[in-house]
């Protein structure tokens, strides 16, 4: 079920008593997660006015009159799913029939139409601590929770290894974990009970040569019988940054040019120092020779 989708409710009734059922009436509450569609009420194919719907109580109320033994009929009306923020986690509906000679009877089964009944969160932690650097191992955790009113089925989560990182072999964990299709990881979660949460994890290592300031981001994707379209997780957020992505500080890739330059300067300094020492030695030898010429010889 997706926002804006049209829902048609069909209520079938029949008097199973051996006597008439006077003042029979059907009431049906339009869930607040949906909106009543004007002009949609039909009783045995006959249109009924919108006055049968009360926008305050959100009840569709239709008086059937006296139902003869064995008499049956059908009441139909429509609603439309509200936007996600109003319709999650699902739209429910159950009609009620009563008369002067019967107790209130609820329709069966209760209708539950899931509208994205999942909380789907992705987070990341640098296991080496501090700011992310080349060679650090990143722990990626995916949390999936069923917040609906019925179990969810055929839940599958996939996640591609983030750019600038390499998968740590054997690090995948969680129900149905499968790393056989690298760089795509897969979890065949299956069924999630009402309120159940599962955590799916894997690790990657930051690649050598990753430039300073590189943003490493990652999102997982989920499919399920209760989703009309694939759902994307939240962005992974790092405890080292205020944003929703990983940002690398000065890394080895940036340090190498500085190291090479510093080494070159140091080598040049040594050459200049050696040249200076050699020049001073030559000057001292020349000075000694001149002094030797000026010194008189005793006979």
Can you put this structure into words, describing what you see?
With 299 residues, the protein is of the alpha+beta class. The chain has 2 helices and 23 strands. It has helices at residues 84-87, 252-294; strands spanning 6-14, 21-29, 34-36, 42-43, 46-47, 53-54, 59-67, 72-81, 90-93, 95-99, 102-106, 111-114, 118-126, 137-146, 152-160, 165-167, 177-181, 184-192, 197-206, 215-216, 221-223, 231-232, 246-247. Strands 1, 3, 4, 5 and 8 form a 5-stranded antiparallel beta sheet that branches. A 5-stranded antiparallel beta sheet has the order 6-7-2-10-11, with no helix packed on it. It has a 5-stranded antiparallel beta sheet with strand order 17-18-15-21-22, with no helix packed on it. The protein is elongated, with a radius of gyration of 39 Å. Residues 237-262 and 294-299 have low confidence and may be disordered.
Element layout with pairings:
Blueprint: E1 6-14, E2 21-29, E3 34-36, E4 42-43, E5 46-47, E6 53-54, E7 59-67, E8 72-81, H1 84-87, E9 90-93, E10 95-99, E11 102-106, E12 111-114, E13 118-126, E14 137-146, E15 152-160, E16 165-167, E17 177-181, E18 184-192, E19 197-206, E20 215-216, E21 221-223, E22 231-232, E23 246-247, H2 252-294
Antiparallel strand pairs: 1-8, 2-7, 2-10, 3-8, 4-5, 4-8, 6-7, 9-12, 10-11, 13-14, 14-19, 15-18, 15-21, 16-19, 17-18, 20-23, 21-22
């Amino acid at each position: 079920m997706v926002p804006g989708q049209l829902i048609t409710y069909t209520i079938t009734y029949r008097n199973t008593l051996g006597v008439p059922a006077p003042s029979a009436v059907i009431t049906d509450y339009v869930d607040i997660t949906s909106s009543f569609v004007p002009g949609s009420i039909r009783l045995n194919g006959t249109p009924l006015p919108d006055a049968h719907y009360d926008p305050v109580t959100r009840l569709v109320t239709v008086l059937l009159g006296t139902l003869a033994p064995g008499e049956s009929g059908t009441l139909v009306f429509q609603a439309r799913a509200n936007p996600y923020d109003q319709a999650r986690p699902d739209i429910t509906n159950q009609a009620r029939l009563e008369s002067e000679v019967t107790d209130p009877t609820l329709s069966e089964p209760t209708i539950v139409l899931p509208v994205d009944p999942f909380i789907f969160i992705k987070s990341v932690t640098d296991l080496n601590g501090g700011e992310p650097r080349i060679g650090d191992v990143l722990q990626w955790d995916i949390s999936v929770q069923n917040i609906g009113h019925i179990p969810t089925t055929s839940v599958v989560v996939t996640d591609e290894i983030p750019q600038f990182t390499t998968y740590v072999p054997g690090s995948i964990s969680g129900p149905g974990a499968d790393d056989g299709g690298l760089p795509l990881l897969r979890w065949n979660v299956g069924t999630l009970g009402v309120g159940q949460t599962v955590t799916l994890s894997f690790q990657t290592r930051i690649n050598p040569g990753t430039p300073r300031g590189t943003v490493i981001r990652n999102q997982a994707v989920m499919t399920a019988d209760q989703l009309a379209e694939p759902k994307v997780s939240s962005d992974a957020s790092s405890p080292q940054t205020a944003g929703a992505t990983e940002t690398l500080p000065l890394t080895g890739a940036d340090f190498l040019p500085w190291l090479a330059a510093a080494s070159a300067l140091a080598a040049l300094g040594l050459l200049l120092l050696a040249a200076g020492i050699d020049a001073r030695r030559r000057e001292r030898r020349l000075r000694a020779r001149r002094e030797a010429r000026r010194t008189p010889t005793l006979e």
